[in-house]
Write a structure and sequence with these properties.
Elements: E1 5-10, E2 15-16, E3 21-31, E4 70-76, E5 79-87, E6 89-94, E7 99-103, E8 106-111, E9 116-121, E10 131-141, E11 152-156, E12 163-167, E13 173-180, E14 211-217, E15 222-225, E16 234-241, E17 245-247, E18 250-251, E19 256-260, E20 266-270, E21 276-283, E22 291-293, E23 296-298, H1 301-314, E24 335-337
Antiparallel strand pairs: 1-19, 2-3, 3-10, 4-9, 5-8, 5-10, 6-7, 6-9, 7-24, 8-11, 12-13, 13-14, 14-21, 15-20, 16-19, 16-21, 17-18, 17-20, 22-23
Length: 350
Amino acid sequence: MSNPIRARKPLSSPWPAADPFLFCAFHLDAYPASDGAQGVPRHHLRGRDLGSDFSGRDGFSLYHGAPIPGFPAHPHRGFETVTVAKTGLVDHADSLGATARYGQGDVQWLTAGGGVMHSEMFPLASANADNPLDLYQIWLNLPPEDKMAPAAFKMLWSPTIPHYRHRNATGATATVTVVAGAYTPVEQGPELVPPAPPPSSWAARPDTDVAIWLVILEPGASITLPAARDVRSLRTLYFHYGTQIRVNGVPSQGQELYEVDAASTIELHNDGADEARVMLLQGVPIRAPVAAMGPFVMNTEQELWQARVDFGRTQFGGWPWPEPGPVHAPGQQRFARYPGSSEADYPPAS
């Protein structure tokens, strides 16, 4: 049997991705106890480039926020963001009038489509303990016919997201969080189907084979990932957390990106003494030209120019909030309020 690893290279940041994905940003920030108002204490702000802090100093960055870290109001057009908030909180607000607080394993799927402004702030919930943030944001492209689809967002609450757990002969467990793309275990068990993405997503089409799986392996754990359903899919693995794994028997050389054959199963084994994580991104490529600049991802330079003109003229609906990076009150539980609705949506009971 031929080796399913087609290419491998050291992992860079943000992670490069294969069509239909654009890239993935992984945020792992060791925020301290808050200042009592959900922000970073004043003494941690000194010496940083406030407003654009990507320093990682003291184990965290403020990004474009201060004292509350995060990304205040900014525009997008022509693609989607899939934000996986494994640990910590995210406060969302957008130009559609929607707002949310999510975290603790929740996923937000935002279709920017024809244009949206949103903010993503990271409030520090505890004034008495550290506030770690462990978050992935994946950029998924839209096909030409959906570049200008109406903007929309959807919450995938943690209790609704399937998890597959496999314990090997040594008793070590591997867990697969199935964010997108049905998962059929190689070992045994029923197919796991995640919540549907927004309707204009490339992932919403039945023939695109989009998958987003986060694999977490305890020390000594192993798992065999099933082959893709469509051999046209491009499939990439990101070993991004941990010290040593084997991919189909091949030892890793630091944290790496693997391009693998979609028609093959993939065996993972954690040889390290600590938890290891692998993200899988997969899908049938869109195979359309990509013209990208900052927050806009279109097909042509003319469309990019039009995106800038439209944003300057309309602000994609304007900003209905009193500040660029609004956050919810301390103690606010996770919820979402969708555009045009006064009713809140809450995570179901686990």
